[in-house]
UniProtKB/TrEMBL annotation:
Pfam families referenced in this protein's UniProt entry, alphabetically: YjbQ
Domain of life: Bacteria
Name of the protein in question: Secondary thiamine-phosphate synthase enzyme
PROSITE patterns reported in the protein's UniProt record: UPF0047 (PS01314)
InterPro entries given in the database record: UPF0047_YjbQ-like, YjbQ-like_sf
Length: 133
């Protein structure tokens, strides 16, 4: 299995598109599986359509489901930081994609995004791993 770690800066927007990084990592690798993992307690990975209003729709859904208010037992950090720690229970920190002929088999409108509402720590790592088929 081959792996690569990518450093990312997040926190200004809930959604960071990492599709280009995934495409580049898979290029030329043939058939197999690409596994993505963010080793952070406050971030997750998702497949969504980007650029069509989905990012603010997702932000609104997260705000309704996990309000930023100070209602959490986990209270260190900025206001509502406990929500950041609950987020990965709803948006998993890992994702596996089929890769065919060196390209992730994404749907027409699918993009790979990192979802992170934590404004206290904006430095993130994304591990990409390829398992040959």
């Amino acid at each position: 299995m081959d792996s690569l770690i990518i450093d990312l800066r997040t926190g200004t927007d809930l959604v960071t598109d990492v599709t280009r990084e995934v495409l580049e990592f898979c290029r030329g690798r043939g058939d197999g599986l690409c596994h993505l993992f963010v080793p952070h307690a406050t971030a997750g990975l998702a497949l969504i359509e980007t650029g069509s209003g989905t990012e603010p729709d997702l932000a609104g859904a997260v705000d309704r489901l996990l309000p930023r208010e100070d209602v959490y037992r986990h209270r260190h950090g900025s206001l509502g930081h406990g929500r950041d720690h609950v987020l990965p229970a709803f948006i998993a920190p890992s994702l596996t994609l089929p890769v065919l002929a060196g390209a992730p088999a994404l749907g027409t409108w699918q993009s790979v995004v990192l979802v992170d509402s934590n404004v206290d720590n904006r430095d993130r790592r994304l591990r990409l791993s390829f398992l040959e088929g």
